[in-house]
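sanity check both lines:
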Amino acid sequence: MDDQELQTLRGKIDEIDDQLIACLAERMQLVLEVAARKLEIDCPIVQQNRAFEVENHYIHMGKALGLDSQFMTDIFHKIHNESCRMQARLWQI
């Protein structure tokens, strides 16, 4: 592999990283919409059943795509914690 091929591959990784970040930003905007609705209907920020379902989805989807279960669990927890933080900030808890 020469330097140009390496740069091309890195460029593709950068494009995917940009997409991941854009998707995370879109997800967090939806989290704020969910938080506003939860506030209206007096629903708690964390719903354990939903969190468990989403975590399992991450793990199963990751496995199906050849990704490590612990890696997927770690990603879920990072995203979930940030989602909860943003919701709590909206609720000013």
Notes: The chain has a mean pLDDT of 95. The first helix runs from residue 3 to 40. Residues 31 and 41 are 15 Å apart (CA to CA). Helices lie at 3-40, 48-64, 69-91.
